[in-house]
């Protein structure tokens, strides 16, 4: 809705007409040229740079494809439905970004690997801020949510020094392939939790074995994948987000080997260094020692997390940005 004055009359945003030579857009190319001139009015140089490139690529796409009015309206309606599908717990736009590979690309460009540090992976649309705090060794999943999994490891800096007090957010699907937010009746967070590494950098907690699952297919993104003839499956994985003062925040995921969807992950999240192997344990005494209430079998996942410092990360990002700019010339 437009802004209105005290008398109820529509008013502008207060920016005066620009003193620019803008010919009437009688030809397609003039539309692009005029818009690029107007883009120079942006007071922020970074904003100018981003929108100059966005406009150039978008207009180039329209011209190259000779897209029809009906096709463009279909695209607008698709984006409208994408926004309307979003809720406080469901983020369809993140899912769209994921399946188009944009999330993975932005993640890769913004998180270049520094030495032997742990590589990042996509956040995905199922992260929530309400994960409960859990103590070391406790379970992030309620009983009966799937086969037992025990996760352990240490958090280090690149020189091998333990990082104490690192906050680890972790979340996963249950044994049915659903995140807690996908259930109509979500009474509390489940299969997710938040813990801290101890003085030696150690972390350990109980979970359930995640399973491969389809990304939501009941919305516009699901319709898009059907139209493109693409599967909507993700390989099974365990999400982790690690934060510690002075270190770059790491968002990653661990992918057990042998899953048929590893190489064709619907959201392009798998990296070779993040493919791990479980150890199968069948020992009732060991299961009880680790806190599992029944049975003798569980899977063990051991993985160390290595975080780069903020300074190291910034230097690596600057170097990558410089290389990308040179390659674009």
Automatic annotation (TrEMBL):
GO terms for biological process: catechol-containing compound metabolic process. SUPFAM superfamilies: Aromatic compound dioxygenase. Keywords: Dioxygenase, Iron, Metal-binding, Oxidoreductase. GO terms for molecular function: catechol 1,2-dioxygenase activity; ferric iron binding. The keyword Metal-binding applies. Residues 124-307 form the Intradiol ring-cleavage dioxygenases domain. It comes from the Eukaryota. Its cofactor is Fe(3+). Residues 1-23 are annotated as: Disordered. Residues 44-114 form the Catechol dioxygenase N-terminal domain. PANTHER family: DIOXYGENASE, PUTATIVE (AFU_ORTHOLOGUE AFUA_2G02910)-RELATED, INTRADIOL RING-CLEAVAGE DIOXYGENASES DOMAIN-CONTAINING PROTEIN-RELATED. Belongs to the intradiol ring-cleavage dioxygenase family. This is Intradiol ring-cleavage dioxygenases domain-containing protein. It comes from Hericium alpestre.
């Amino acid at each position: 809705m437009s802004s209105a004055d005290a008398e109820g009359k529509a008013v502008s945003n207060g920016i005066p007409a620009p003193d620019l030579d803008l010919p009437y857009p009688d030809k397609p190319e003039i539309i692009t040229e005029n818009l690029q001139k107007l883009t120079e009015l942006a007071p922020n140089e970074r904003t100018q740079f981003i929108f100059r490139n966005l406009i150039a690529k978008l207009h180039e796409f329209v011209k190259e494809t000779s897209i029809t009015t009906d096709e463009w309206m279909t695209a607008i309606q698709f984006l409208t439905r994408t926004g309307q599908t979003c809720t406080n717990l469901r983020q369809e736009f993140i899912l769209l970004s994921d399946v188009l590979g944009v999330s993975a690309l932005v993640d890769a460009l913004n998180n270049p690997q520094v030495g032997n540090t742990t590589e990042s992976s996509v956040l995905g649309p199922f992260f929530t801020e309400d994960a409960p705090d859990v103590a070391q060794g406790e379970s992030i999943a309620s009983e009966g949510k799937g086969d037992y999994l025990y996760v352990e490891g240490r958090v280090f800096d690149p020189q091998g020094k333990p990082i104490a007090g690192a906050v680890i957010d972790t979340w996963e699907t249950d044994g049915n392939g659903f995140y807690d937010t996908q259930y109509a009746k979500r009474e509390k967070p489940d299969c997710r939790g938040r813990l801290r590494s101890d003085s030696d950098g150690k972390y350990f907690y109980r979970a359930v074995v995640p399973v491969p699952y389809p990304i939501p297919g009941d919305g516009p993104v699901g319709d898009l994948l059907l139209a493109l003839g693409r599967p909507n499956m993700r390989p099974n994985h365990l999400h982790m987000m690690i934060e510690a003062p002075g270190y770059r925040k790491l968002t990653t995921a661990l992918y057990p080997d042998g899953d048929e969807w590893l190489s064709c992950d619907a959201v392009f999240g798998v990296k070779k260094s993040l493919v791990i192997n479980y150890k199968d344990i069948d020992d009732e005494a060991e299961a009880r020692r680790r806190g599992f209430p029944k049975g003798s079998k569980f899977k063990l996942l051991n993985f160390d997390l290595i975080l780069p410092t903020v300074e190291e990360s910034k230097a690596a990002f600057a170097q990558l940005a410089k290389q990308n700019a040179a390659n674009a010339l």
